[in-house]
Amino acid sequence: MCGRTAFIAYQVARAPVRHDISNWSSGISSSGARGPKPCALLTSTSTVPQRRTVSPTIACTWSHSPTSVVVANADEPLIVWAAQTAREVVWVDTATTWTQDASLCPNCGSNLAREQPDHTAGSGGDWHCTGCDLAQPTADYRVLDGKIIDRRQQVWDPELNVPGAFNISNAACALAAAELMGVDPGTALVGMRTVSAPAGRFATAHFGDTTARLLLAKNPAGWAEALPLAQTQTVVLAIDSAAADGRDVSWLWDVEYERLAGRTVIATGPRAQDLAVRLGYAEVEHRCIPDLAAALAGHPEPVDVIATYTPFQRLRKMGGV
Ligand SMILES: [Zn+2]
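That is the input. Now the predicted structure with zinc ion docked in place:
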């Protein structure tokens, strides 16, 4: 379960529930009866450049874990393969567009094939192996046009207070997990809507006269989701390569920074020079200001800041959020 889904699930557990389930993390109700303990698997992506070998290794580890009930991302071949050993799987079509974690089948090594998605109809994009039976399973829950369709074909508008398609995907998985815990979808969504700035993500901070919204992106998949959220003309990108960020920043070349063409981009953080090289090849006009405080100073209009983990935590501290 990724951090955002975990946080949303935590908020679900704080909302009033139908069946007196008070302890989400342990799956033990206040009455002492042990309930299901679902585990949500969304992605095995990583910042490391060997992602195409590391991600299958992570999935392999999961596949050998004795987990009984799993909520799994049906769009991700490695997750589907890993979840097959679980006693019960609830499949969620998260409508994700990230496909760079698996090009080969984790079961037989053959090429994976994907249908071309029809973005207008919101359909297609399914995958299958060209050498064995591994294929995208039929989803119990689906994300479609920003709505969540549950296993009874009820359509829910998540109306979350956090932005981004990825948060709707997270919410769909949290909704499925909540139902496994006996929480009805309406009640679960009430809890999810109380989430606005989990651990500082999407929080607005002030740096002198500059107002900045803080976005966290921990790996190329996260950057692919965060870049479309940047709304301001000036965008600050903060990069480091501490252990929590990933020591090797070659992942910068997996991110489509070309999306920022036409914006005023500032590269900052200890690895700002590496980012500047990438932005140069993306033909994105930019300035390189490695010092975070200097990069955030003197912006009369609000700015969006996208940061890897370590500079994100520094910015939270500097901005008091
Ligand atoms: Zn296969």
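The mean pLDDT is 83.
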